[in-house]
Amino acid sequence: MARKVCQGSDRGESAAGVETLVLVDESALLSQREIGDLPLRVVPLGTAVSAERGARTSAVAPGTYLEAMKAVLPRKEVKGVLVLTVAARLSATYQSALLASGQARERLADLRVEVVDSATATGGLALVALAAARAAGALDEAAAAARAIIPRIVTYGMVSDWMALRRGGRIPRVAAWAGGRLGVRPCFRMTAGVVRPWRLARTKRQAVAAMQRGCAGLPGGALHAAVFHAGMPDAAEELASGLAALGAVELLTLAATDAVRAHTGDGMVGVGAYREP
C-alpha cells in the first residue's frame, strides 16, 4: 500500500480562487490523487519515432504548453502561469517551455508566464511542483516557493535494466558506467540537474537501504520525500516504509507512466527528497 503524508493543499483551498496556475510535465508522475484541488496541471510528454529507436518519448512541444496556457484565459482570476520543467540538462522540455512563454507574451498579453528549470526529475520534480502550487498566491510567490526548494533536492535511484537507459538516452553516463556489470543494480544520485553514478547494489534490498541512509543523512530539518518506481511496487513500499520511520512530514509514492517507462524500462525505484532549513 502506498503511503502519503501532507496530501493536497494545507489550506484546502480550491484552485478556482488563485492567481497562479502551475504547469508541470508528465515526468513528475503526479496524478489527480496527489494534486487534489491545487492549482496544478500536468501536460503530456510528446512521442518521437525513429528507425533506430522506434517510438519513444520526447520533450513537451511548445504548442502543448501554449494550449495549456490558453485554457486558463476564461478564468479571469488567473493572472500568471508558472511552468516547471524537468532538468534542462536531461531534456529539451525547458527550451520548449521558453519558446512557449515567448509566444504567450505575443499572443496572450494579459497573462504573465515564468519558466523555471527544476534541476531535478520524477519525484524531485513532483515535490517542487506541489510546493509551488501550495503557495497559491501571485506568480512571484509561487516561483519563489519553487526556487527555495530546488537547491535542496537530492534524487536517488536504482535501475535493473541499464540497456533501457542507454536506449532512452537520458542518462547515458550512468548507463555506460553500469554496462557490462552483470548481476548488479546500478544506482545513481542526482543534484543540481546532474546525474552521477553513485554505487552498485547486489540486491534490491541493498539499494533500498542505501537510499534510505542517503535521505537520513540529508542536512536540515523536516524531511519531504517522493518515492517513484517503474514496475517495482514492493521495493517502493519498502523504501516508503523506511522513510516513514524517519518521520517524513510529506511522503508520496508515485508510479511511472508508460511514457517514462519507455526510457527507464521496468525495474526502477528511487526517491526525490529534501529537508527543510
Which range best describes the helical content: under 10%, 10-25%, 25-40%, 40-55%, 55-70% or over 70%?
25-40%
Please report the first level of CATH classification, the CATH class of the largest domain. Answer: Alpha Beta
Summarize the main sheet: 6 strands, mixed
- Provide the spatial order of strands within the biggest beta sheet: 9-8-7-12-10-11
The domain count comes to 2
What's the number of helices?
Answer: 10
The proportion of strand residues reads: 25-35%
Number of strand elements:
12
Could you say what the CATH architecture of the largest domain is?
3-Layer(aba) Sandwich
> Which outline best applies?
globular
Please write the string of helix (H) and strand (E) elements.
Answer: EHEEEHEHEHHEHHEEHEHEHE
Radius of gyration: 18 Å
* Poorly predicted sequence stretches spanning 5 or more consecutive residues: 5-14
User: Roughly how many Å apart are the termini?
Assistant: 30 Å
Which secondary-structure class do the elements indicate?
alpha/beta
Mean pLDDT: 86
CATH topology of the largest domain: Rossmann fold
